[in-house]
Design a protein that fits this description.
Number of helices: 9
Shape: elongated
Distance between the termini: 26 Å
Radius of gyration: 19 Å
Largest sheet: 10 strands, mixed
Strand content: 25-35%
Order of helices and strands: EHEHEHHEHHEEEHHEEEEHEEEEE
Length: 306
């Protein structure tokens, strides 16, 4: 494979034909050599990513959201280090949530600027978090993440949104409905969590463990310092929840009195019964028993702005 040729993994929103034509026009104008593959569903992303890796592409750009980027990273992390070190991973934000791309100032509506930055091929080696757990079949599993792991209420909202979307179709409407249903949903989960020399053994509303910005819940996280930022949110009344959402939107989430922040290299969840778990915006099988979340420092080459 020519070293300068990009592999573009396109994950469309809806039919996406206009968006595909636009990105191809921008790439052609900049005389980028590329091959284009399009995912048909979330299940096909890992298959296509594996195909691009096996065919020797040195630059692989995912045009999608956080979940598609997560699939790509998990494919990379299953490769030998010598293979992984040859590849630079880029992103063109095109998802419902583009939190990790937004951290680097990539904006969904500015394809020209994004491609101009990617062409310069400025590489930063970034951290990858990993959750290791046992599933309901008793099998050991692990999943890597660039952004965060959510345990409890936020993961529950993700599940509500998925169920609402299967009924309503619209992504925006399903998100609004899931937020509304949250008011009437379970708001606390009994958890036992160990981190650093501290232990939390009490009822908790939600936990966010972030290598990245964590959808605003770990706003101080840096994806290349070898640390995990953790926000544990205790129970809050509905008025405090609304206040917390406002602080989340305005970037001041850690100022909420119910939020307790930590920084660590490892989190052990000894017990969190009935609490769903989301990884980079997508639910995983609910772990059975205890599970562990760690960080691997600077293991994926990522294309960042100039």
């Amino acid at each position: 494979m020519e070293e300068q040729r990009w592999g573009i993994l396109y994950c469309p929103k809806g039919r996406g034909s206009k968006q595909r034509e636009k990105i191809q026009r921008v790439l052609d104008e900049r005389q980028v050599q590329y091959d284009f593959v399009q995912s048909e569903s979330s299940d096909s992303v890992e298959r296509l990513m594996t195909m691009l890796i096996r065919n020797g592409y040195r630059t692989i750009v995912v045009m999608g959201g956080d979940s598609a980027l997560n699939d790509a990273v998990n494919c990379l992390m299953h490769e030998e280090k010598q293979v992984r070190d040859r590849i630079a991973l880029g992103v063109i934000p095109n998802g419902v949530i583009n939190d990790f791309a937004r951290y680097w100032d990539f904006k969904e509506g500015d394809l020209e600027q994004t491609v101009d930055w990617l062409v310069k091929r400025r590489v930063r080696t970034v951290d990858v978090g990993c959750i290791r757990y046992t599933d309901k079949r008793g099998e050991a599993q692990h999943r890597y993440f660039l952004n965060c792991v959510n345990i409890g209420l936020i993961a529950d909202v993700m599940n509500l949104r998925r169920q609402a979307r299967s009924l309503l179709g619209s992504r925006l409407l399903s998100f609004v409905v899931s937020i509304f249903l949250m008011i009437f949903h379970r708001m606390e989960y009994k958890m036992h969590i160990k981190l650093n020399a501290d232990e939390v053994n009490r009822k908790v509303m939600t936990v966010c463990i972030g290598s990245g910005p964590g959808y605003g819940q770990t706003p101080s996280a840096v994806p290349y310092n070898g640390m995990l930022d953790v926000s544990i949110i205790y129970h809050a009344e509905i008025v405090q929840v609304l206040a917390g959402m406002w602080l989340l939107i305005t970037g001041r989430f850690l100022n909420h009195r119910s939020v307790h922040p930590y920084r660590t290299r490892e989190v052990v969840v000894e017990d969190a019964k009935h609490a769903l778990v989301g990884v980079d915006g997508r639910l995983i099988d609910t772990p059975v028993g205890s599970y562990r979340i760690t960080i691997e420092q600077e293991v994926v080459n990522f294309l960042i702005p100039d």
